[in-house]
């Protein structure tokens, strides 16, 4: 039984989606958590761990939120693969599994341009409410959150729904606005579009698809006689479960034709996609996150942006379009770019590259934990007084989907705290503009 989202209404101007304030606080599950959290990049947002407040001797002085857009329709490219696989299933002469009978009268009705769905707008609004509840004390009428977004419609919509949620949570006392939209055809630190020489994850995901997809395709072919599905079709069919569930706000019938193990293997497909797409497994992946990291360092230290990679130097040089005096910053982006930023920072580094033939149970690069729909990385700057081995001064900690990160690269302590100076020092790759990697994007 699923909650009604009747209070969601969509403003079709292409500017933003609006939501009624009566929406439920708890997001409905579209499947058991163990399955729903195996949908890789299509997983609905969830807190990986409960939020950990800072130690009592520390107070938060600045917050930097990097957030992915909310749940969306499939992109046009994904739609092509989905429709091809569905057509094969519907061509079957006989279904021996009753769970496939829905295909006799099934019509694909999802949008195909990757636009935000109402549930995705709801996710973004809820994130804005959480941000106010957690960090509202940092806000004043003269110090509202500074909000930016990459220019994709779904990203802009997510940003405006976040500001709406923030406003609602404050009883409309504080009403932040989207101040800067970064064009994805120009320099943009919130999109991975500035490295034409970067490779893709296709070799790795194709290898894994052939391994995990073949048995699933064989099983479905035995249940849908004459469908002739291939291994490649499986990675197009499984996403119909999360896409339709989010779009229609009820469990898709496609969810029932796959097992928990199928979804777990699809999760690894997503892990490989992000790791070898813009993460550590892609030689020119981490450099695509350098521009954002240098903007983050500028905010944390209150100094001008020093970057020669993806930043828009005109915008970042102006206190109007890149102020350094705010307490809360919120940037809205894409999952591929967030993966690049994690890698540029040094988060979720793996002892060994992910093996395209065998998932490691010890891996921490798990896409549903890193970049689900409405994912967020939060960098907090804190002022701490002396305690134990901790000196008085400025510190930094990072949370990804509420999970506190250990920050080994700057000797993070048991509370996940690094001194601000140590954190800045640890970001040599970004401060050196990618150590020559950015030039390799074009040469």
TrEMBL record:
Active-site residues per Swiss-Prot or TrEMBL entry: 69 (nucleophile), 335 (proton donor)
Alphabetized UniProt keyword annotations: Disulfide bond, Glycoprotein, Hydrolase, Secreted, Signal
Presence of keyword Electron transport: no
GO MF annotation list: acid phosphatase activity; inositol hexakisphosphate 3-phosphatase activity
Cystine pairings recorded for this chain: 58-384, 195-441, 241-255, 410-418
Family annotation (Pfam families): His_Phos_2
GO cellular component terms attached to this protein's record: extracellular region
Signal peptide: 1-20
Compartment(s): Secreted
Reactions performed catalytically: 1D-myo-inositol 1,2,6-trisphosphate + H2O = 1D-myo-inositol 1,2-bisphosphate + phosphate; 1D-myo-inositol 1,2-bisphosphate + H2O = 1D-myo-inositol 2-phosphate + phosphate; 1D-myo-inositol 1,2,5,6-tetrakisphosphate + H2O = 1D-myo-inositol 1,2,6-trisphosphate + phosphate; 1D-myo-inositol 1,2,4,5,6-pentakisphosphate + H2O = 1D-myo-inositol 1,2,5,6-tetrakisphosphate + phosphate
InterPro entries: Acid_Pase_AS (IPR033379), His_Pase_clade-2 (IPR000560), His_PPase_superfam (IPR029033), Histidine_acid_Pase_euk (IPR016274)
Quaternary structure (record): Monomer.
PANTHER family: 3-PHYTASE B, MULTIPLE INOSITOL POLYPHOSPHATE PHOSPHATASE-RELATED
Name of this protein: Phytase A
């Amino acid at each position: 039984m699923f909650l009604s989202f009747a209070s969601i209404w969509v403003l079709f101007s292409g500017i933003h989606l609006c939501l009624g304030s009566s929406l439920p606080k708890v997001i409905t599950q579209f499947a058991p958590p163990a399955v729903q959290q195996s949908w890789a990049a299509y997983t609905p947002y969830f807190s990986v761990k409960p939020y950990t407040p800072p130690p009592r001797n520390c107070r938060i002085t600045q917050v930097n939120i990097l957030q992915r857009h909310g749940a969306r329709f499939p992109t046009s490219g994904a739609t092509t693969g989905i429709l091809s696989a569905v057509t094969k299933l519907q061509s079957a002469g006989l279904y021996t599994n009753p769970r496939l009978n829905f295909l006799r009268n099934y019509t694909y009705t999802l949008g195909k341009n990757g636009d935000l769905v109402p549930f995705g707008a709801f996710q973004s609004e809820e994130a804005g409410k959480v941000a106010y509840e957690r960090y509202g004390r940092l806000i004043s009428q003269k110090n509202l959150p500074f909000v930016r977004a990459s220019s994709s419609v779904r990203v802009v919509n997510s940003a405006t729904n976040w500001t709406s949620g923030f406003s609602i949570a404050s009883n409309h006392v504080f009403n932040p606005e989207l101040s800067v939209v970064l064009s994805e055809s120009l320099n943009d630190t919130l999109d991975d579009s500035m490295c034409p020489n970067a490779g893709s994850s296709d070799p790795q995901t194709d290898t894994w698809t052939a391994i995990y997809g073949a048995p699933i395709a064989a099983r479905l072919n035995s249940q849908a006689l004459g469908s002739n599905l291939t291994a490649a079709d499986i990675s197009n069919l499984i996403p119909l479960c999360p896409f339709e569930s989010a779009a229609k706000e009820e469990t898709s019938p496609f969810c029932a034709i796959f097992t928990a193990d199928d979804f777990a293997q699809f999760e690894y497909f997503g892990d490989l996609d992000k790791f070898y797409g813009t993460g550590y497994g892609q030689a020119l992946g981490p450099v695509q996150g350098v521009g954002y990291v240098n903007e983050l360092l500028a905010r944390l230290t209150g100094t001008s942006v020093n970057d020669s990679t993806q930043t828009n130097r005109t915008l970042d040089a102006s206190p109007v379009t890149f102020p350094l005096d705010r307490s809360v910053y919120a940037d809205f982006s894409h999952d591929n770019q967030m993966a690049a930023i994690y890698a540029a920072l040094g988060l979720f580094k793996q002892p060994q590259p992910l093996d395209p033939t065998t998932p490691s149970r010890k891996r921490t690069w798990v896409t549903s934990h890193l970049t689900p729909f409405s994912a967020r990385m939060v960098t907090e700057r804190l002022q701490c007084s002396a305690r134990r081995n901790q000196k008085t001064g400025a510190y930094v900690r990072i949370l990804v989907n509420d999970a506190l990160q250990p920050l080994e690269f700057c000797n993070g302590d048991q509370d996940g705290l690094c001194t601000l100076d140590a954190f800045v020092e640890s970001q040599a790759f970004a401060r050196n503009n990618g150590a020559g990697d950015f030039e390799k994007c074009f040469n």
